[in-house]
């Protein structure tokens, strides 16, 4: 009577089967709701005693839609392997591949998925195979074709457009990602996921103003982890601010910097109690000094100093490069001892995150870049910076390094 009753029947049947109680396992499954995995098991259990019954169950399993069918139990591997021996089809290859993938036997899963070629007329199959091979550079062409096929099969499903545009963006194919995201947005303008995809693609093709126009219309419901909308909003404003700074239009730059500090209600997340605005304050201080507003520049500098003094703010920084901004200001004041203490505390926390595999921590290139910059190891820092920026994405780190380069001229 739960939301997945077939899984309850399967779990009980597998328990009986593992104890050698085949008849009891069969009796349980005969009462189960219709479901492909149930029928595969019933066919398997009848294979030695009732061949016609076994064949009938096998045909029922193959006739059912694969939608919302996600087998995962290791005990089902011999069942599906046997089914493939009887009659290899893309469906039983797909199901067996899902089980292998769920149990970290990814090489076996990939082999089965490749064996299906382009036979399935089922969009989620291509989305799944695309996700399975996403990180293999030698399979980029396969992934591209699979996601195109998914869109072709189900153009009315927003997830196919989302998967295709996200994959292209991850591979730094920004214009292609924008083309797909725009088509998806034309179909699903009120869908927040698709709208965010479109805004993100606009941002990464240097169309920050258009990006903000899309974000003004989107409605992301508040939820845990719904940070992407605000992050894109912040990056778009900071991108426009940097452009104005390079054009020496400092008043306009400050307006975009101030806008980047806002937390629009329609983007799904609220302002932290003490937001980390060190990058914005450093940029504003630079602009104010260029405009001859020394008191205003000093005010921004004090905000950075105040935030930097708290070790907790170093540890909780989502953007490691902000800690380098703190280091620059502390060095200007000759507060080397304080900087060393803060840096040691931050490193200890990051080492712990790395040790417990919670996050990359001190193994992250951003962390190592900050340390190299503080220690004056410019050659090492430059190499790390190139590696971080090679994907071409507009990120906080990219904007930070661009701002620092401008302010250090």
* Unreliable parts: none
Count of DSSP-assigned helices: 23
| Helical fraction | 55-70%
Q: Order of helices and strands, N to C? A: HHHHHHHHHHHHHHHHHHHHHHH
Look at the helices and sheets and give the structural class: mainly alpha
Taken as a percent bin, the fraction of beta residues is under 5%
Q: For the residues shown, what is the average pLDDT?
A: 95
Q: What profile does the largest beta sheet have? A: none
Radius of gyration: 28 Å
Shape category: elongated
Separation, N- and C-terminal Cα atoms: 69 Å
Total E-strand runs:
0
Assembly annotation: single chain
Note down, in words, how this protein is organized.
The chain has 409 residues and is mainly α. It has helices spanning 5-18, 22-30, 36-45, 51-63, 77-86, 90-102, 106-115, 123-132, 140-153, 158-170, 174-187, 192-203, 208-217, 228-246, 250-260, 278-290, 294-308, 311-315, 321-332, 336-355, 365-374, 378-389, 396-407.
